[in-house]
Amino acid sequence: MSSIRLADLAQQLDADLHGDGDIVISGIASMQSAQSGQITFLANSRYREQLALCQASAVVLQAADVEYCQSAALVVKDPYLTYARMAQILDTTPQPATNIAPSAVIDATAKLGKNVSVGANAVIESGVELGDNAIIGAGCFVGKNARIGAGTRLWANVSVYHEVQIGESCLIQSGTVIGADGFGYANDRGNWVKIPQLGTVIIGDRVEIGACTTIDRGALDNTQIGNGVIIDNQCQIAHNVVIGDNTAVAGGVIMAGSLKIGRYCMIGGASVINGHMEICDKVTVTGMGMVMRPITQPGVYSSGIPLQPNKNWRKTAALVMNIDEMSKRLKAIERKISAD
What we know:
By secondary structure, the chain is an alpha/beta fold.
């Protein structure tokens, strides 16, 4: 939507309107850059002094901040959540494709629902099922017998391998590969023998996957991504990983095979998580975490050494290298004290 009356926007957002409801809102901007005709939001009352300089036609804020606002306002309980919903209403992002492009290659056995769009040079192989209003962007590949649910959108150059199942209302960004072989090999006296990956990937509803992420198919059982999961760019999800509903995975995360992550977890960027273990529900792993053992209690977990000046880091590294010797000396002193 390119523009909307402030009163209509307030109604859609279930917000209390303060000021002129006939103001036309044509976009969203930050408090620092917003101009007339745009709307912004104040998510933290600590920054309420910025309202005096804000040029936006309207501001989304909490009731406690209304008296400091010099423009029209939409009063809500959670301005940041309202901003997300408002951005959806005013979103002008084009669709990945419209209609069926003449250059699209669609096998005669594929089943397409109502209002399906397939972009230029996309390939839809035999046995594929596309739900109503599914959108397949330019250059995508959808392999044999794959199923993509209603309302799901694939941006350009997404590869969906054979037998993969993707639920409804998902969004998958460009360059992502779903269903490639997992890293499965046996060793025969130094030579690697490939193990065919016979499982698939099953993705739930309302899942969003960032650009250039890879989700490998299972070796025997399936790799599974639950409902409402969000995965950022350039993540590696290995074979037979299971991710529970509504878990969030930030960019650059690497998950080894046969890992099970619970529901409502948050995995910080660039974290590395070992395989063949389980992380329970409601766990937060902060950025660059290295998870080598199961986590059985909800909470926040961190690892690694925080950034410090190089001179200090060198001293820390030197101490770490000598920990074993220091431990032996400490134990010897403890034994001597006990003997005395």
